[in-house]
Write a structure and sequence with these properties.
The structure is a single chain. The chain is of the alpha/beta class. The chain has a domain of 236 residues: Acetylglutamate kinase-like (Carbamate kinase, 3-Layer(aba) Sandwich), CATH 3.40.1160. Helix content is 43%, strand content 20%. The protein contains 16 helices and 17 strands. It has an 8-stranded mixed beta sheet with strand order 3-5-2-1-8-10-11-9, sandwiched between helices. Helix 1 links the parallel strand 1 and strand 2. Helix 2 packs parallel to helix 4 and helix 4 runs antiparallel to helix 6. The structure holds aspartic acid and magnesium ion. Magnesium ion binds next to loops.
């Protein structure tokens, strides 16, 4: 049994829907020969829909009623075009038209009350933003039926039981598992493909929630874990996870295998892959996750597993950059040997809610520096001045300052652990490219080396590191001794 999740672009147009139907049909055929056959589909909203819904709700809060009213026609058209192109059966079309009408009426009612109240609560926003999936799933189920499959749309509010952290709810595992088995297994057993809405869930009381932006991947992993499937497939619009962003490093290639740990490191450092939270349910049950391309379905994509096969292990697997950062430094000779400076620094940072992405302190203890998003820099610096007012007065601390235009480059790979000389190669690469490295950090997991560089150096740093590790070659070739 497998779970197949299709993202927004995979259901972005009539052609894409047709492509998805073909992919699901083939999977159903393959699965039928297996010991425990079954396909469960999870779908995102059509691309652009969730953004539009959120914008409509936010504008309604500010009293703008014309936007959500105007959007209803285009929303209807967007879905109707797909139905019109891919579904011939008159009663199917009529049933879908009723579903769309119902959802649009709900959208209208919700937005008009938001406008009247002049208030958009996180709870209200979750109901509005989940409407896209609740249109896409019935549509996809109907398209699958038009392609000769048996399929049934299911609202995940029936399956995924969450806490009430609106906008980023967490599943309650045991309740979710019981509901998924009860509701989905009988369908799967008689050869029906459940088509489940991604992104959404509901509290125990039945109040709708969302799992956070991009949450459909998480939905797929939650369902996959609940049903203990053989594989979770994430169908997207790229050939899996790449060694680097191909827009910056033109010879970047798709990575055959990654470990859960590597994916977490990459996601943390801003690579547009799966959110670490997403793979958590898969990790717990050791279920493989495969990232595949809807528009090039024969490409093997990337397989994410607990332990990658020896020939796919490699040392450095990928490099990524996080932009828009600020490097904050606290410096002063009087800091040496004074306990508690680091603790006070980071409690001050926590008080203003800033996210620290990297920390580094020299062993002389004369400075601590750390990286935060540019947007939090000002409030962090103010909080530190406040916290260390006394130390600044006495000159134990000389200065607290930020440096803008900062980027973190993360070099990631579990195989770096215990391999000597890797850091040296990273720094040789950047030195040869004439790049000034401002700070360095390596986590004790040794699965990543991070360096801080200024904006102007990001592109050449990424390319230089990509080249020195020959990441444009398949892993097996890189590993061959020369
Ligand atoms: N449609 C939702 C979003 O755009 C969920 C998803 O696409 O995964 O955030
Ligand atoms: Mg999406």
């Amino acid at each position: 049994m497998i779970v197949m999740k299709f993202g927004g672009t995979s259901v972005g147009s009539a052609d894409a829907f047709a492509q998805v139907a073909q992919i699901v049909k083939e999977a159903v055929g393959r699965e039928s020969k297996r010991e425990r056959p079954g396909v469960v589909v999870v779908t995102s909203a059509m691309s652009g829909v969730t953004n539009m819904l959120i914008e409509a709700a936010q504008r309604a809060e500010r009293g703008d009623v014309s936007f959500y009213q105007a959007q209803q026609d285009s929303l209807l058209l967007k879905h109707q075009v797909v139905a019109g192109r891919l579904i011939e059966d008159g009663s199917e079309r009529a049933a879908l038209a009723r579903v769309f009408e119902e959802r649009l009426a709900e959208f209208d009612r919700l937005c008009s009350s938001i406008a009247v109240l002049g208030e958009l609560t996180p709870r209200g926003l979750d109901v509005v933003s989940g409407l896209g999936e609740r249109m896409a799933a019935p549509l996809l189920a109907a398209v699958l039926r038009a392609h000769g499959l048996r399929a049934e749309a299911i609202d995940a509010t029936e399956l995924i039981v969450t806490d009430n952290a609106f906008g980023g709810a967490a599943p309650i595992t045991h309740l979710t598992e019981a509901r998924c088995r009860e509701r989905l297994l009988p369908l799967v057993e008689i050869g029906v493909v459940p088509v489940v809405t991604g992104f959404i869930g509901a509290t125990v009381e039945g109040v709708p929630t969302t799992l956070g932006r991009g949450g459909s991947d998480y939905s797929a992993a939650i369902l996959g874990a609940a049903l203990n499937v053989d594989e979770i497939q994430i169908w997207t619009d790229v050939n899996g996870v790449m060694t680097a962003d191909p827009r910056i490093v033109p010879n970047a290639r798709s990575i055959r295998q990654l470990s859960y740990e590597e994916v977490a490191e990459l996601a943390y450092y801003g690579a547009k892959v799966l959110h670490p939270k997403t793979v958590l349910p898969a990790i717990e049950k050791k279920i493989p996750v495969r990232v595949l391309n809807t528009f090039e379905p024969t490409h093997p994509g990337t397989l994410i597993v607990e332990k990658v096969q020896a020939e796919a292990r490699g040392t450095v697997k990928a490099i990524t950059a996080i932009r828009g950062m600020n490097l904050i430094t606290i410096a002063g000779r009087g800091m040496m040997g004074v306990p508690g400076i680091a603790a006070r620094t980071f409690s001050a940072v926590a008080r203003v809610g800033a996210n620290v992405l990297m920390i580094s302190q020299s062993s002389s203890e004369q400075s601590i520096c750390f990286v935060v998003p540019e947007a939090s820099a000002e409030s962090v610096i103010a909080a530190l001045h406040e916290e260390f007012r006394r130390e600044l007065e006495h000159r134990y601390i000389d200065s607290i300052y930020g440096m803008p235009h900062i980027n973190i480059i993360a070099v990631v790979g579990s195989g770096m652990r215990g391999t000597p000389g890797l850091a040296a190669r990273v720094f040789t690469a950047v030195a040869q490219a004439g790049i000034n490295v401002i700070a360095i950090a390596q986590g004790s997991s040794e699965a990543n080396i991070s360096l801080v560089v200024v904006d102007a150096d990001v592109t050449s740093a990424l390319r230089a590191i990509h080249d020195i590790f020959e990441l444009h070659l398949p892993t097996e070739e890189r590993m061959r001794p020369r």
